[in-house]
Amino acid sequence: MDSSLYIHIPFCKRRCGYCDFVTFAGFERMIPEYIRAIEKQINLVGEGNQIKTLYFGGGTPSLISPNVYKDVFTCIRNNFFLLPEAEITLEANPGTIDWHSLDEYRKLGFNRISFGMQSAIKNELDLLDRAHTPQELNSAVSLARDAGFANINLDLIFGLPGQKLSDWKFSLEKALELDPEHLSLYSLIIEENTPLALKISQGTIQEPDDDLAAEEYEWSCAFLEKAGYRHYEISNWAKSSQTNDFRCKHNLQYWHLLPYYGLGCGAVGFLPRDSCRMSTTSSILMENAKWIGRYIKSINLACESREVFPFIQTVDRSYEISTFMFMGFRLLEEGINPVDFFQRFGVPLDEIVGEKIKQLLSSNLVEISPEGHYRLTRQAWLVANRVFREFVDE
């Protein structure tokens, strides 16, 4: 069974005001030791299985030079079989790259790049504590094209405090002028203990308008459909044709609940039963320490004992069914195939969650596709969490 690798690079020049991810600013001195720990973890878990996608996320992976990543790629190839056609993604912030570095990333094997655009309006970027300007984003995309990247994703955030619908339309229209192969659009979530949450609690800025965010999402769906983008997941759109499918293969691995390794601090992985030597009796979760120093220490201790189990835990069948269901419902076209469910769990889907499915069908939140799959209805897209919650405790 083909697997995926996620490698977390937590370093940032500056932490964004809304960010609740495992990221750290001002810790660049730890990069060499951290990269060595990544390589050690690869040595611990690698067993020669095929890798179909490789994703460097963050943080800001583009802060690290291509020369440093050369050793990581060598380590990966020594422990896994990286397929020649593998999708290999680098997350990058505009302003952290130039043509030379992009050219070197391409030569290493990166064939997909994801830029954190977030907005095309300077004041909104300032609100989010982003370190780049709209002009730097435009330049970064142009440089990536010149370096040979033919698969570019742009991340944008809507539902910002004080945002008007016209502001969001402007940003998304500017994004389309750059002709990206893929778009990820996320509604702003105000996370506790972030600088943005503090400003809202102090009344410095107003709270986001949920109704406006819903209107922005609805407009985006119609606008991108008209522009020819395929809305294949709640928050993701891709160009697609008979010859090119630009859906994110790495994220599809997550949503299909197929095996993926999580490497680096705070990274999470999932390995179904019998997908590797660590999961011979049950499916397992990989979950690494969230602090850089603690992660490095845990990997060093694991290497001393040749023991990978400090960062894995087994998961029971009910957890796996629950995750399979709400991940599957994120896929707007595919939904959930009852045949896949039976092949995975050995029992009919209706026998386990049939009553919940009936309720969702009668509420017009779920429909049956022409292929016989269960998927969200159009009206459920804005309230998808109501559907997901039905399966959390399954």
UniProtKB/TrEMBL annotation:
Keywords per UniProt: 4Fe-4S, Chaperone, Cytoplasm, Heme, Iron, Iron-sulfur, Metal-binding, S-adenosyl-L-methionine
Any Pfam family the entry gives: Radical_SAM
CDD domains according to UniProt: Radical_SAM (cd01335)
Domain Radical SAM core: 1-230
Subcellular location: Cytoplasm
InterPro entries per the UniProt record, alphabetical: Aldolase_TIM (IPR013785), Coproporphyrinogen-III_oxidase (IPR034505), Elp3/MiaA/NifB-like_rSAM (IPR006638), HemN_C (IPR010723), HemW-like (IPR004559), rSAM (IPR007197), rSAM_sf (IPR058240)
Any Gene Ontology biological process: porphyrin-containing compound biosynthetic process
SUPFAM superfamilies: Radical SAM enzymes
GO cellular component, one term: cytoplasm
GO MF terms held by the record: 4 iron, 4 sulfur cluster binding; coproporphyrinogen oxidase activity; metal ion binding
Keyword flag Ribonucleoprotein: no
Known function: Probably acts as a heme chaperone, transferring heme to an unknown acceptor. Binds one molecule of heme per monomer, possibly covalently. Binds 1 [4Fe-4S] cluster. The cluster is coordinated with 3 cysteines and an exchangeable S-adenosyl-L-methionine.
Membership in a protein family: Belongs to the anaerobic coproporphyrinogen-III oxidase family. HemW subfamily.
NCBIfam families: hemN_rel
Name of the featured protein: Heme chaperone HemW
